[in-house]
């Protein structure tokens, strides 16, 4: 593919010359939409070869995040914070690879991650017509939902049985359109390199979602197949030269979730209730984790992963709430729904449009009445991974006799390897930490909904917060990977009945499942079904006058934008920081705590192995969100010039309910120049330095004979 890509680049360079200064409209475009969307903005289509390079090098990290192949031998690059789910499996009190980092010195030293999975993109197709054909006239919303669910199961299981690929039907545009994605599953994934936590998350929570930033948020894995490095000819090489300000770039990844298509009738409740509740839950969890961390170094190590995640999500939610108050999100949506700046609305479709909005407003009132119960049935009161395991036990016992296509996706044959890997994961549970987490979440539940709430009473089971937290915190079965996997398989085979399992979490999950089933009819017939049909009308009207992208669904998307500085409170924030900024930030913050420089970097600086002028982090105008972490940032040649890892304070959370602010909202990227220079000069991983160099040369230098 390398020679083909080089052949098309000359035309693309000329075409780019007149568009580099233009700002690309925000959007998270599916692979099949991307070329048309780019042409609508820039007047040209990216060549197929570039689009194919972006698609077929893409990797999805199942535990959450994005990645890409960067060599022909299965080498994968992603963020350090994405890699942490693997690092924590390897870490222990005596060998904390999260804190110390890891550098293999040869392929023989690359460490296999237990129960870890990556998926490589293979292809996609539209299956909307096939799924909708299962819905018959006269069906209720609930019946139509079930018909679609079974049709999706049939499609996915057919792909799996015929190809062995991992299928996923993704509902787009409020589940009014459907795409079938096909992935190749890989579960022999080995750690190659990860910097110290102090380098990957330099500045800690204070630096997170801020800029200027200096963080080496990168890590390398290698995918193996049949015991050998996977051959990956469709890789994208890492550029040793990076990007320049104003350059048009592409982000390819799996953005997690956004809510930009909510209507003016739905948004006020998000602003007044949903987002504030989420913030209060997270604040309670953050407080509990900080108190536990203060008890000693080992407690701090145990809580670190949870604390990082909580603080990260908390900043996003606070950003969302700030956007509601400062960006006029609701007011702008109200005006747009009435026609202001709406290119699709006209006299002919106005009545249909208004009827759809009215139907959504009616269903919203039903949702608001059920909100307390739905919140309790979520994970608000259960800051613990045990609940997921317990729910798996209850659901497999419930669906074991059903056909494969009728089962929920999680329990179908096509997802079996992924589910069993999750159950057998060596993720560690610390009883005292679980007590602290449960105490915080159960206390919040009682404060918010009251002990007299029927569901809260079921959850507490007549016990105090302390006693219930301790009872649930030390599950002998669920905390042990081998025991919980064996229990799941026994329940699936019918060798043991769920009611005979002596486990408090199981009893709790049973009660919650019973309450959920009682609400399903209302949810499907009075909320989800009517809203789906109304949104179908809205999208149909919108598509007559504009290109519309779907909300994020943790499925493959491409965003385009440029490298751009910005002004914050009268100060120009530079497009780039460099290694010199890294050392200057440490000195400016006293070089203590989260601003402590790793010894490896001090050694490299003192020995002259790094240049302080090396670009470190940069900011771009791309439409990204959580799930995009680890996404490769590619130039017009299909070369990796960085990895997306963060957003600035003008973007964090602001992008959930509305498009990013082009003036101040920025994605934050760790430059390829920093990753390549650090691997070579700081960590001296020579065989990887050579592999990246050769991979780069193979894609950029003409082959023999032209």
Labels describing this entry:
706 residues, 14% strand, disordered N terminus, eleven-stranded antiparallel sheet, 3 domains, globular, seven-stranded antiparallel sheet, Thrombin, subunit H, 20 strands, alpha+beta
Structure description:
This protein has 706 residues and is α+β, with helices and mostly antiparallel strands. It folds into three domains: 2-117 and 187-259 and 550-700, Thrombin, subunit H; 121-185; 381-542, no CATH class. Helix content is 47%, strand content 14%. Strands 1, 2, 3, 4, 5, 6, 7, 8, 9, 10 and 11 form an eleven-stranded antiparallel β-sheet that branches. β10 and β11 (228-229) form a beta hairpin. α10 runs antiparallel to α16 (431-449), α14 runs parallel beside α19 (481-493) and α16 (431-449) crosses α18. The longest helix is centred in the last third of the chain and has 39 residues, at 504-542. Mean pLDDT is 92; it is low at 1-24.
Quick description:
With 706 residues, the protein is α+β, with helices and mostly antiparallel strands.
Low-confidence regions: 1-24
> Looking at CATH, which topology of the largest domain would you report?
Thrombin, subunit H
Span from first to last CA? 14 Å
Shape: globular
Please state the structural category.
alpha+beta
Number of domains: 3
Compute the gyration radius: what is it?
25 Å
Q: Give the rounded overall mean pLDDT.
A: 92
Beta content comes to 5-15%
């Amino acid at each position: 593919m390398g020679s083909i890509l080089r052949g098309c680049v000359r035309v693309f360079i000329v075409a780019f010359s007149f568009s580099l200064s233009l700002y690309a409209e925000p959007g998270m475009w599916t692979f099949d939409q991307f070329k048309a969307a780019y042409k609508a903005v820039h007047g040209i289509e990216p060549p197929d070869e570039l689009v194919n390079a972006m698609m077929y090098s893409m990797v999805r990290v199942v535990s959450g995040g994005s990645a890409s192949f960067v060599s022909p031998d299965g080498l994968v690059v992603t963020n350090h914070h994405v890699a942490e789910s693997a690092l924590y499996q390897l870490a222990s009190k005596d060998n904390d690879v999260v804190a110390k980092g890891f550098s293999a010195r040869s392929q023989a030293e690359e460490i296999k991650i237990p129960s870890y999975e990556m998926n490589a993109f293979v292809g996609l197709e539209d299956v909307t017509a096939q799924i909708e054909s299962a819905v018959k006239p006269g069906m209720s919303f609930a019946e139509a939902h079930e018909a679609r669910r079974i049709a999706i199961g049939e499609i996915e299981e057919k792909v799996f049985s015929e190809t062995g690929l991992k299928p996923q039907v993704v509902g787009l545009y409020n589940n009014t359109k459907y795409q079938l994605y096909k992935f190749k599953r890989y579960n022999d994934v080995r750690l190659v390199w990860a910097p110290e936590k102090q380098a990957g998350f330099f500045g800690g929570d204070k630096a997170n979602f801020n800029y200027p930033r200096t963080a080496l948020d990168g890590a390398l894995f290698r995918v193996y197949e049949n015991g050998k490095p996977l051959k990956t000819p469709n890789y994208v090489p890492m550029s040793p030269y990076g990007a320049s300000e104003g350059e048009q770039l592409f982000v390819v990844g799996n953005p997690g979730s956004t809510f930009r298509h909510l209507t003016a009738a739905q948004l006020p409740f998000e602003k007044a209730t949903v987002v504030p509740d989420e913030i209060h839950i997270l604040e309670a969890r953050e407080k509990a984790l900080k108190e536990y961390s203060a008890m000693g170094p080992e407690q701090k190590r145990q809580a670190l992963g949870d604390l990082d995640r909580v603080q990260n999500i908390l900043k996003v939610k606070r950003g969302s709430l700030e956007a509601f108050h400062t960006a006029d999100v609701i007011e702008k949506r109200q005006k747009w729904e009435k026609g202001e700046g709406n290119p699709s609305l006209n006299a002919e479709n106005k009545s249909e449009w208004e009827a759809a909005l009215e139907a959504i407003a009616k269903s919203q009132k039903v949702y608001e009445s059920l909100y307390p119960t739905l919140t309790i049935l979520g994970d608000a009161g259960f800051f613990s991974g045990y609940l997921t395991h317990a729910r798996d036990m209850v659901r497999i016992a419930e669906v074991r006799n059903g056909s494969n296509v009728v089962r929920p996706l999680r329990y179908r044959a096509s997802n079996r390897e992924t589910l069993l890997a999750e159950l057998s994961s060596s993720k560690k549970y610390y009883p005292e930490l679980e007590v602290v987490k449960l105490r915080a979440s159960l206390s919040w539940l009682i404060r918010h909904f009251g002990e007299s709430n029927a569901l809260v009473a079921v959850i507490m089971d007549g016990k105090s917060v302390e006693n219930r937290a301790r009872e649930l915190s030390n599950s002998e079965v669920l905390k042990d990977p081998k025991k919980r996997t064996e229990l799941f398989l026994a329940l699936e085979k019918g060798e043991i009945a769920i009611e005979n399992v002596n486990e408090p979490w199981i009893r709790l999950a049973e009660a919650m499942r019973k309450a959920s089933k009682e609400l399903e009819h209302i949810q499907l017939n009075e909320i989800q079904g009517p809203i789906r049909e109304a949104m179908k009308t809205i999208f149909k009207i919108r598509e007559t006058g504009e290109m519309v992208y779907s909300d994020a669904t943790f499925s493959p998307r491409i965003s385009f934008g440029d490298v751009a500085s910005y002004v914050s409170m009268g100060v120009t924030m530079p497009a780039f920081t460099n290694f010199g900024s890294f050392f200057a930030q440490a000195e400016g913050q006293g070089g203590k705590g989260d601003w402590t420089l790793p010894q490896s970097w001090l050694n490299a600086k003192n020995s002259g192995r790094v240049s302080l002028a090396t670009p470190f982090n940069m900011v771009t105008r791309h439409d990204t969100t959580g799930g995009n972490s680890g996404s490769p940032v590619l130039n017009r040649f299909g070369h990796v010039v960085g990895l997306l890892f963060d957003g600035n304070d003008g973007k964090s959370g602001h992008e959930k309910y509305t498009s990013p602010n082009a003036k101040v909202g920025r994605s934050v990227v760790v430059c390829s120049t920093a990753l390549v220079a650090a691997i070579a000069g700081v960590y001296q991983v020579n065989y990887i330095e050579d592999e990246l160099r050769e991979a780069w040369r193979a894609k950029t230098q003409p082959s023999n004979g032209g």
